[in-house]
Amino acid sequence: MRKIDVKIPSRPKDSYTIAIGNNLLGSILTKVKKRMPKKNLFVLTDANVAKAGLLKKLLKSSKLPYYIISPAGERSKHIQTVTKIIESMEKKALGRDCAVIALGGGTVGDIAGFVAAIYKRGVPVIQIPTTTVSQADSAIGGKTGVDSSISKNAYGSFHHPSAVYIDVSTLKTLNKKQFNTGLVETIKHALIADEKYFIYLQKNMKDIIAKKPGPLEYIALKNCQVKASVVEIDPYEKNKRRILNYGHTIGHAVESASNYRILHGQAVAIGIIAANIIEQKLGFGDKKRLSELKKLFKQMNISLKIPKSITKRKILDIISRDKKAVNKWPRFVLLAETGKVLCKKGDYAHNVKRKIVEDAIDILLKQSF
Amino acid sequence: MRKIDVKIPSRPKDSYTIAIGNNLLGSILTKVKKRMPKKNLFVLTDANVAKAGLLKKLLKSSKLPYYIISPAGERSKHIQTVTKIIESMEKKALGRDCAVIALGGGTVGDIAGFVAAIYKRGVPVIQIPTTTVSQADSAIGGKTGVDSSISKNAYGSFHHPSAVYIDVSTLKTLNKKQFNTGLVETIKHALIADEKYFIYLQKNMKDIIAKKPGPLEYIALKNCQVKASVVEIDPYEKNKRRILNYGHTIGHAVESASNYRILHGQAVAIGIIAANIIEQKLGFGDKKRLSELKKLFKQMNISLKIPKSITKRKILDIISRDKKAVNKWPRFVLLAETGKVLCKKGDYAHNVKRKIVEDAIDILLKQSF
């Protein structure tokens, strides 16, 4: 037998800039064209964003090709949407020298990032997140993906954006429910990384909910700092990045079991409560934080009630297919204290006995919040 | 406006091993399980390979889950096949801790590589190429991809294999046409990298066609060396890797215009002749090499005749949508001499005037080989 070793050279360090401001949208295209003058730009957005006038504000008189994902929302985050978009790009004769601009929330960003990752073996993506959740979370860090008919993010890729532009004025287009549920990722960031930030959020939630530009720019900045600090250490989710999944294991399952009638943020809020219950069962939970969280979610008008159609069995079935599952059982991110994730022997995701998870789900389902 | 820079850390050097031998197949699974004991393995193959008994030889008594792509061949290299495979993997509850084994030719390897690249944001792939073309070319280097309903490799990703196992005895399962057309990539390797290897091929083509294990192992080794030397320098096809596309620009177009009735190798042979004609028109072509190539292709029983249904217009239309096109016009890899690719100012892909390409296509279409 003969053997040859093929070397894969190292990839050099790289970086991208997140620009945060108020009323930025109208000037972004000029900035992008200056950054990448040779790229044929292509804009991806969805029906809601277009209807809210943001596409027009971005494009102004420009004749860039675009695609409007319709209907807006999680239901379109499916491989079939990707197929339609890619065929539309091909019909527009876009080559490997194109770049995708994602204008919208997490769904648009995830789809656009994935399309860019796989179109002709990869083209750049520029993220312009327009929702609380995407500005805080999904636009940064390079995770992309779409769902299959069976599960969430079955298809995906790590594809870092070339640039991110956050215009907090776009948040005005969101209704109260969308805006508030999107803030759950912000609370998650405070919980896993910064106790002072958690205190800031409790003190300033009223102004944030009132969409005052100052606090909005501040939390955008804080969120990006938390997310960036984690992503920089572990861009491909080998270990520490998992802490961003706090509240997401049971959260995702509830979201999926509800057939996406429960919004992502609301599901994560439920998942955060579930994690707290598990923490308490393991002996290091914090009852004070649980009541603070419940108070905060109440102020944000986020219901933690789970519909009766979602059974324990359904949740267990879904978490066993979690993409981070090992031997068909997920590992959980847990808090050691507010602002600090539990880390054991360098590991941030932990095996929790089935019985404890089942009991926590029982409490979750029975409790009336 | 506030700005944050997000650092993407460098990726360390990496490598993978290509093992080459005769009658290896039965022992590969043991080797893979030793290499990655924690991975849940999943085998992807196609109907032809399974029918030829290779799947059985690989699996022996093992109960690994597998998926058989049907029908075998280019027609299945489509995003719809990927969707079916991924849903099958989900139904088998395979998590992110699985690894995909690709057993088959270029189509299987490309599909499996792409599936592995995007399944739950990426899992390892082990390539076991079983055809002349995949052993020489597609199994090495990490290019993966599938077609859309509009064009070839519209979907794709760079995803390096974790290991490659080449068993030349698997080539016995190929019929003469498959075997011979697959050798065109071997000739391409000699043309772009090694004049002596081109002379070896001319001298030993009879033994190669007779599938003698010695020469087969030798060309497998040489091919991997040529391919690896290029891929190591430029894994993500920024520049030098493009030389592997020699003969592929017009080759792909002819293949696509024939609706894949013309086999890939045959199409590349036509593309190599086209490149030679372009080289001659540009003043540095080699008539001697052209006649050597025609002689070699004749010995290999590869027809260079293009069906009448494939018009100049069709070819031009397809090459303008080439994924390496810049401003809707492809750039061509050309030979300066046998074994040496033309490089101008560090560039390996060249702009060729439309008129010259059109004239070359005219000659190609009119010529009776």
Could you describe the 3D structure shown?
2 copies of one chain form a homodimer. By secondary structure, the first copy, chain A, is of the alpha/beta class. Chain A has 2 domains: 17-174, Rossmann fold (3-Layer(aba) Sandwich), CATH 3.40.50.1970; 177-366, Dehydroquinate synthase-like, alpha domain, CATH 1.20.1090. The first copy, chain A, has 15 helices and 13 strands. Chain A has helices spanning 25-35, 47-51, 54-59, 79-91, 106-118, 132-138, 176-182, 184-193, 195-209, 213-233, 248-257, 264-281, 287-299, 312-320, 354-366; strands at 2-8, 14-21, 40-46, 66-69, 98-104, 125-129, 143-146, 155-158, 163-167, 331-332, 335-337, 340-341, 350-351. In chain A, the strands form 4 sheets. In chain A, strands 2-9-6-5-3-4 form a 6-stranded parallel beta sheet, with helices on both faces. A two-stranded antiparallel ribbon of chain A has the order 7-8. In chain A, helix 12 packs antiparallel against helix 13. At the A-B interface, strand 1, strand 2, helix 4, helix 5 and strand 8 of A face strand 1, strand 2, helix 4, helix 5 and strand 8 of B.
Protein traits:
homodimer; 369 residues; Rossmann fold; Dehydroquinate synthase-like, alpha domain; 2 domains; 13 strands
Q: What's a concise summary of this model?
A:
With 369 residues, chain A is α/β, with parallel strands linked by helices. Chain A contains 15 helices and 13 strands. Chain A has 2 domains: 17-174, Rossmann fold (3-Layer(aba) Sandwich); 177-366, Dehydroquinate synthase-like, alpha domain (Up-down Bundle), CATH 1.20.1090.10.
